[in-house]
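pinging the channel bc i need a second pair of eyes. not urgent but kinda urgent?? the chain im working w is below, pasted from the shared doc
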Amino acid sequence: MNETLALPVDDECDGVLRAADDDRPSQQPRGASISNDEWMRRLTTTGRVRDDAILSLRELMLKAAGHQVHRMHGADRIGAARVDEVVHSAANEATLVVLSRLDTFEGRSRFTTWAFKFGVLHAKVEMRRLVWRDREIQLDDSFDIPNPVDNAPEATAEVNDLHQAVRRGLAEALTQHQRRIATALLIDEVPIDVLAERLGTSRGALYKTVHESRKKLRLYLEARGLVDTDSRTENHTTPVWETR
């Protein structure tokens, strides 16, 4: 499964940080203008200097989490109080994670840009948990693959054949466990962190299951001449199990 996180690029992070800094009182230090070495020095020392640095880091995480939450679908429907709760929860988690991973910072980007991405990630996780909190996840052998959409009439038959083959492949090529996990993640679009939490397992274990499932499905389709071995680089209609 392609679970590459949709994190802001460096320019976007920096733009958000600069805009936020412009709103701060001039007598306060501007986190985005502090050098990488100075950030590391303050966060790894002791006493008041470190306490102040942690407060500045949490302020940065609040900016990152707020930026991400307000970009996400559904944020406008959960109410301002709940949004504020999500932002603060994500900021707290992100602050702790950044502090625990300071030794992994390599200095290849600005410290604020590197740290900002943790705020974004945890905001996404908190929002997904909220959205799915009261939703039941069905882990059974039934599945309903969305019908393919293709505007080219000459491709309709081929696309429909591939669509039906994927359905058969899910039923015939995968184990029951693989089929249930693949259906939940790839078809029902259950967020992987939510599913991992419900099942009491790790994201890594689910990634492994989906990777094995995709491999089996591809071999199943290749054996039937429906997918070429080099089709990943070709311009073709992509089955649903390759798009998540």
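so Confidence is low (pLDDT under 50) at residues 1-30, 231-244. and The first helix runs from residue 10 to 22. — does that match what u expected or am i reading it wrong
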